[in-house]
C-alpha cells in the first residue's frame, strides 16, 4: 500500500490530507492559525505555529487512517503566496511572516515605479509592480527594521519554509519566485536584475524548484517530529490557489475556476504566456501550461461583515427556520428581481487587487431609495461580485485567453442564488463541484507524481465529482449587460473620490 500526504499552510488554518492513489481520501485534519494585524493594513503570522500544526496533523492523519509510517511515500506542501519568511545565517526566523494580503508597502511600490518602467518589468517578470512583490516588502523592512534587514541570509515563502524544516534544503517553488517578482518568466530562471531591486544579495534567494520535483527526504529530526520514516520524499510544493484550481480539474486551455472563499478568485488554464499588469501570472502545475489569475480583495469576508453588522435583526427568523443567516438572506433576496430594483454595490471593501490594483477603492452602494429593504442590498452585494467576475473575464479575453468552461468551488458556491446570479451575469453555465477538499489535494498529488506513484496529471479528478450545473437565464442577459456597464462606469467616476481628488 502506498500513500501520500498533502499539507496546506493556509491563512486561517493548516490542513492535511492523506490519500491513496488512484482516488481514495483516507483522512483529513486541520489546526487553526492566528492572523495578526498589529497595525492597520498589516497581516502577519508566526511560522513556528505552522510547523507545530504540521507536527500535530501528520500523526493525526496516520492514526485516523490506521496506517503505518512505512506506507507514506511522499509529502507535498502548499500555501499562501507570496508570504515572506526571513532567516538569519543560523536558520533562525528573524520576524513574523509578512502575508500576501499585507498592505504596508505603498511607498515602496511607488519607489519601484519611479525606478523602473512597469512595462519593462512586466515583460521580464510576467507580473506588474504592486504590493504583492516581495521586493517592496523587503524594502519596507530595510527602511523600518534595519536591524532585521541586516541579518537576512535567506528569504522563503510559507510552504518553502515548511519544506526546509522537513528536509533541511533551502529552495523556493517556481510560483513563489514568479509572484515575488524574482523570476524571468520566459526563461523560468531567477533574474539577478530583479533580485537587485529587493536590495538583498543574490544568495538570499534560494534555487527554484518545480512543484512535483523531489526536493529532498525527511531529516531524522523532522521524521521523529512527524512520526514518519527518515528519508520520506518531499516535493517542491505549490501555491495554494494554483493547487486548488488544479485539483478542481482546471487542466485544459480555457477552463476557468471561480473561487468563492473569503476573497474571490478567478483562474484560467492556458498554454500561452501573456504578461499583463492587470492580472497575476503563475505556472500551472501541469508542465507546459500557465495559469493567469485574478484575486479580488474581498468576497465571503464582505458577506460575513454585512451579515454580522447589518442583518442581526434577521437572526431570530433564520434560527426559527434552522437556516444560517446567509441562507436566510438568500431566501429574502431571491424574491427580489434581477438588478435589485436599481440598487448596486461596488464591492471594493478592502480596496481592490486585480484587475484594478487600486488600494484606495472602497465599497459603495448606489441607487438606494426608501422602497428598498435589506434583501435588495444583499442581492446587490451578490451581483456586485458577479460583475467583478465579468470584469476579469473581459480582461482575460482582451489578453487573448478565450474562456470555454466555468467551474465553481469553495464555501460561497453552496449559495444556489449566488451561483445563478453569476451564471446570469456571465451568460455561461457554471459547473458546481462536490467533495473538493481544497489545495491540500493538489499538493498531495504533486507528491504522488514526484515519487512515481502515478504518471496521470488528471489524477485529482478521481477525488472530485461534478455536482449541479447552473444554467444561465437568457431573459436576464440584457438587464445584466446594462448593469455591468453601469458598474464599470460607476467605478471610473468614483475613482477620483476614492483617491481624495474631488472633481
Please describe the topology of this protein.
Blueprint: E1 3-9, E2 13-20, E3 24-32, E4 44-45, H1 47-65, E5 72-79, E6 85-87, E7 97-98, H2 106-115, H3 118-125, H4 134-144, H5 146-149, E8 154-156, H6 158-167, E9 172-173, H7 174-180, E10 183-184, E11 189-190, H8 192-196, E12 208-209, E13 214-217, H9 220-226, E14 233-235, E15 238-239, H10 240-248, E16 255-260, E17 264-268, E18 293-296, H11 300-310, H12 315-320, H13 325-334, E19 344-346, E20 364-366, H14 374-398, E21 405-409, H15 416-426, E22 430-434, H16 439-450, E23 465-470, H17 477-498
Parallel strand pairs: 1-5, 5-14, 5-15, 9-12, 16-21, 21-22
Antiparallel strand pairs: 1-2, 2-3, 4-7, 6-8, 10-11, 13-14, 16-17, 17-18, 19-20, 22-23
Helix pairs in contact: 2-4, 10-16, 13-14, 14-15, 14-17
Characterize the structure shown.
The structure is a single chain. This protein has helices at 47-65, 106-115, 118-125, 134-144, 146-149, 158-167, 174-180, 192-196, 220-226, 240-248, 300-310, 315-320, 325-334, 374-398, 416-426, 439-450, 477-498; strands at 3-9, 13-20, 24-32, 44-45, 72-79, 85-87, 97-98, 154-156, 172-173, 183-184, 189-190, 208-209, 214-217, 233-235, 238-239, 255-260, 264-268, 293-296, 344-346, 364-366, 405-409, 430-434, 465-470. By secondary structure, it is of the alpha/beta class. Strand 2 and strand 3 form a beta hairpin. The model has no long low-confidence stretch (mean pLDDT 95).
From the N-terminal CA to the C-terminal CA, the straight-line distance is 69 Å
- The value of Rg in angstroms is 23 Å
| Named CATH architecture of the domain at 3-241 | 2-Layer Sandwich
**Sheet with the most strands?**
7 strands, mixed
Total beta strands: 23
What is the highest CATH level, the class of the domain at 3-241? Alpha Beta
Approximate helicity band: 25-40%
Total of helices? 17
What is the CATH superfamily label of the domain at 3-241? Answer: ATPase, nucleotide binding domain
Amino acid at each position: 500500500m502506498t500513500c501520500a500526504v498533502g499539507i496546506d499552510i493556509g491563512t486561517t488554518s493548516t490542513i492535511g490530507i492523506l490519500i491513496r492513489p488512484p482516488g481514495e481520501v483516507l483522512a483529513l485534519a486541520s489546526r487553526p492559525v492566528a492572523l495578526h494585524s498589529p497595525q492597520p493594513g498589516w497581516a502577519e503570522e508566526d511560522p513556528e505555529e505552522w510547523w507545530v500544526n504540521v507536527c500535530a496533523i501528520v500523526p493525526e492523519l496516520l492514526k485516523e487512517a490506521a496506517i503505518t509510517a512505512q506506507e507514506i511515500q511522499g509529502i507535498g506542501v502548499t500555501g499562501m503566496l507570496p508570504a515572506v519568511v526571513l532567516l538569519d545565517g543560523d536558520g533562525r526566523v528573524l520576524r513574523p511572516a509578512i502575508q500576501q494580503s499585507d498592505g504596508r508597502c505603498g511607498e515602496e511600490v511607488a519607489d519601484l515605479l519611479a525606478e523602473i518602467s512597469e512595462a519593462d518589468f512586466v515583460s521580464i517578470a510576467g507580473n506588474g509592480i504592486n504590493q504583492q512583490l516581495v521586493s517592496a516588502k523587503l524594502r519596507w523592512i530595510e527602511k523600518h527594521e534595519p536591524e532585521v534587514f541586516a541579518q537576512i541570509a535567506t528569504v522563503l515563502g510559507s510552504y518553502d519554509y515548511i519544506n526546509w524544516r522537513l528536509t533541511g534544503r533551502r529552495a523556493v517553488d517556481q510560483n513563489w519566485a514568479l509572484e515575488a517578482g524574482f523570476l524571468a518568466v520566459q526563461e523560468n530562471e531567477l533574474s539577478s536584475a530583479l533580485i537587485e531591486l529587493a536590495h538583498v544579495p543574490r544568495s538570499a534567494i534560494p534555487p527554484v524548484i518545480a512543484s512535483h520535483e523531489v526536493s529532498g527526504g525527511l531529516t531524522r529530526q523532522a521524521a521523529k517530529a512527524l512520526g514518519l520514516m527518515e528519508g520520506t520524499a518531499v516535493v517542491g510544493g505549490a501555491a495554494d490557489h494554483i493547487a486548488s484550481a488544479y485539483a478542481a480539474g482546471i487542466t485544459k486551455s480555457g477552463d476557468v475556476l471561480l473561487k468563492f472563499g473569503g476573497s474571490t478568485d478567478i483562474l484560467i488554464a492556458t498554454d500561452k504566456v501573456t504578461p499583463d499588469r492587470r492580472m497575476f501570472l503563475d505556472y500551472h502545475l501541469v508542465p507546459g501550461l500557465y495559469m493567469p489569475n485574478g484575486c479580488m480583495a474581498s468576497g465571503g469576508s464582505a458577506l460575513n461583515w454585512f451579515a454580522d453588522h447589518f442583518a442581526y435583526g434577521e437572526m431570530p427568523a433564520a434560527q426559527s427556520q434552522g437556516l444560517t443567516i446567509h441562507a436566510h438572506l438568500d431566501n429574502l433576496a431571491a424574491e427580489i428581481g434581477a438588478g435589485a430594483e436599481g440598487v448596486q454595490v461596488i464591492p471594493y471593501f478592502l480596496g481592490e487587487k486585480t484587475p484594478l490594483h487600486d488600494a484606495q477603492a472602497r465599497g459603495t452602494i448606489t441607487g438606494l431609495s426608501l422602497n428598498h429593504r435589506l434583501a435588495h442590498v444583499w442581492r446587490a452585494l451578490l451581483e456586485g461580485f458577479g460583475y467583478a467576475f465579468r470584469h476579469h473575464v473581459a480582461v482575460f479575453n482582451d489578453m487573448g485567453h478565450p474562456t470555454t468552461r466555468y467551474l465553481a468551488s469553495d464555501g460561497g458556491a453552496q449559495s444556489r442564488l449566488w451561483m445563478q446570479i453569476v451564471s446570469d451575469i456571465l451568460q455561461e453555465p457554471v459547473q458546481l463541484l462536490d467533495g473538493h477538499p481544497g489545495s491540500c489535494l493538489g499538493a498531495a498529488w504533486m507528491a504522488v507524481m514526484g515519487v512515481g506513484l502515478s504518471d496521470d496529471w488528471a489524477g485529482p479528478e478521481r477525488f472530485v465529482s461534478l455536482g449541479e450545473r447552473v444554467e444561465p437565464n437568457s431573459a436576464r442577459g440584457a438587464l445584466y449587460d446594462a448593469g455591468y456597464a453601469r458598474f464599470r462606469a460607476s467605478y471610473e467616476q468614483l475613482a477620483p473620490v476614492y483617491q481624495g481628488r474631488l472633481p
